[in-house]
Design a protein that fits this description.
By secondary structure, this protein is mostly helical. It has 16 helices and no strands.
Length: 311
């Protein structure tokens, strides 16, 4: 489910939140990081639980319309398409998924049903719903992708709800949304139940990468700061004390302590993270400093890279 960029983002958030030093006990920082990463999976499952609740709402709505004599034929047909959506059935009927949601106590949408109601009403009013024609798995999948991308994910009330529900979830939403959409696009009608329950880490190397990047950045933060200072003619203490400073230290850590990761990969990854999470000028600032550092390393044959590279 997570890729290396996601892991870098979680490490960045942990470093920025604690602003730790080499003298600190790193156990608490590592515990926070791993718990924060695990919490992303809970957010992912809670969104699937939300879609399950919305699907249940659509079934109830369809039954209600069938009992109303003045309901239009088109209205009943649209509600039938929604209620019988094969993609939502794949989620709602996934026994293993639903058991996991219940076991982790993430089936809280019955208690917070007002959010389900808000989203359901928005869906019914949307052009996506009015133009939706079911009876085909690909159509049903596209309908879910569209309502999720355009109605559910951008909803401000849902955003506020997640912010109140768990501290780290708001920061996790972009990553989880991206992962969820990617998983949905690959999902097929005959998919196994585990297709909606991906492993959090691709392998144990990725989990080790997360803890190593956190620890090695913290343990060398002073020397990395000195390295940055040498490459900056006009010392910008405010910028370097902000998220930009954290990203620079993490990048230098990868240059020096992770010989299998190519320098180009490291630079590209942190520039993309800076564009998404920092200021508009951050990527230019970070690129300038990292470029100077890499040129110096190459000139003096410092910290050579080896291996195929990991991302």
């Amino acid at each position: 489910m997570l890729n290396r960029r996601h892991i870098r983002i979680k490490v960045m958030q942990s470093l920025y939140a604690f602003n730790g030093t080499e003298s600190d006990d790193l156990t608490k920082d590592e515990k926070f990081l791993l718990h924060s990463i695990d919490s992303m999976y809970d957010l992912y499952l809670s969104i699937l639980a939300l879609l399950t609740a919305i699907h249940k709402k659509s079934k109830d709505y369809h039954k209600k319309l069938q009992n109303i004599h003045l309901a239009t034929e088109d209205g009943v047909e649209n509600s039938s398409n929604f209620a019988n959506n094969q993609f939502l059935e794949l989620i709602s009927g996934n026994t293993l998924l639903q058991q996991t949601i219940t076991k982790k106590k993430l089936d809280f949408w019955d208690l917070d049903s007002e959010y389900v109601d808000i989203l359901f009403k928005l869906i019914l009013k949307s052009k996506i719903y009015s133009e939706y024609s079911g009876n085909d798995f690909n159509n049903d999948k596209q309908f879910v992708l569209d309502i999720y991308s355009e109605i559910i994910a951008p909803n401000d009330k849902l955003y506020d709800y997640f912010e109140d529900k768990r501290l780290t979830w708001v920061d996790d939403l972009p990553v989880v949304n991206t992962s969820l959409i990617k998983i949905f696009r690959k999902l097929k009608l005959n998919a196994s139940e585990t297709a909606l329950l991906p492993e959090l880490y691709k392998d144990m190397d990725d989990k080790k990468f997360a803890t190593d990047l956190l620890r090695k950045t913290l343990l060398n933060t002073s020397s990395f700061s000195e390295e940055i200072a040498k490459k900056t003619t006009n010392w910008d203490s405010e910028r370097l004390a902000s998220l930009d400073g954290v990203l620079l230290k993490m990048a230098i850590c990868e240059f020096q302590k992770f010989p299998s990761i190519p320098q180009k990969v490291t630079i590209n990854e942190y520039l993309e993270i800076a564009k998404e999470y920092s200021t508009p000028k951050s990527s230019l600032f970070i690129n300038g400093i990292l470029d100077k550092i890499v040129k110096e390393y190459q000139t003096n044959n410092l910290h050579p890279k080896s291996g195929r590279g990991l991302r």
